[in-house]
């Protein structure tokens, strides 16, 4: 067979666009000077694979690891392509030629639940254990140690259940598995779990480097440091895998763009094999045939039933739709708009055709239901928001939102002229928006509103972002307000991630009553969310088309309620028993 012609196992997928990465990799390898394909080696590895390797999880545990088409192609390409390199003989110091693996790096981009971790770990075992490199060094890592544990423990599990790896036929231990290391006694090779940080990682000489979930990495320094240590090895290999993530994640997105450039031939790198399964930018993500193209292991894992279930949960919810495409179709996501559809938001009112918000404050005062407050203090000329969130009455799931908003009076005419999308002056006339004298929000007015709330409602706690609110809270402390009920809440993912998801769920479930407040509805209409590296999300102030302070404050208040155990009233409070001093 000529080097450039396709072998039968590639001919079978040559017409399938989903395997363009494989055909392209073969063509680029064949064009490399002196490269040749070791068919016998590739055939032997593929034949021995299910005889040695066993699957490790759930219904698959202990069953032979039979390679799927995409996995078989990947293995054949990695082990089959060879290239001659010049070396100096260690004994004679004469020039010589060694034939080594052409591919020194694997970039595997594939949706979740397609057996990525199992396959990556098995490749790690193949190159670290079965190649029997004396004094070999392997390193496994992720964004942090916990993330690196996933493929590392998978490698250990594969070694434990494999046929003839952990012990020889006489029962002698061949491989010692420790908490953070794998030691091969025959070769003296050591594979270690790393923390994910580059500190103290210099001076290593890796034969195998295995890194998982690139899309979450905050730095490429560790992978670069380890790669630079491979210079003394004849055929080291780097094994990397990931699903898609957010485009704002610089390391992951840039690595992905590099992989795409290699596949397209825009980047001259014949030593990297890119395996890529994802939907295209123009593909209809709701089409099940598209799901099949992006998930080459579909049916084995994940099942079609599982994807259909996840699709139903996501449909009609913009953020969940984006996450479905990211996790299950390998499409990178950006900031998501249309977070809270207008139809869903409008339905979250006890009477959508009547301004219930105008009487909500008095209604809550009369019922004196327990509530959680949140304050989002603006920069001097923007909107300041104060929100009270009241827990449901007995036998109800409906939480009630009562917001208040302030802007500087001197900016009202300017806003009305420059932004005709909303009727700012009507909001003021109706009482939905309040003004304070001057050209900046007078925090004394906000402070008085907070004190009034404490005197009117049963306030459990009130959250505030210390940025811009520190002076206001300090002033309230001098007014003998119970300052212990004020809780600092930073507006990042650790604080607001879970409350944001819960707020979204409650809006879609109709478990919030905002009374149709027009300012809050305006904010909800253009609120967007931003993702962190783990694809958790929070309201995006900077990315939204306009101010969303009321939505942010609502999420903050909900976050307080989620962190405080809600207890029923004391039986003595219900019966009105008087306290008697003894």
Automatic annotation (TrEMBL):
Residues 269-560 form the Terminase large subunit-like endonuclease domain. PANTHER family: PROTEIN YMFN (PTHR41287:SF1), PTHR41287. Residues 99-247 form the Terminase large subunit-like ATPase domain. It comes from the Bacteria. It holds the Pfam family TerL_ATPase. Gene3D superfamilies: P-loop containing nucleotide triphosphate hydrolases (3.40.50.300). This is Terminase large subunit.
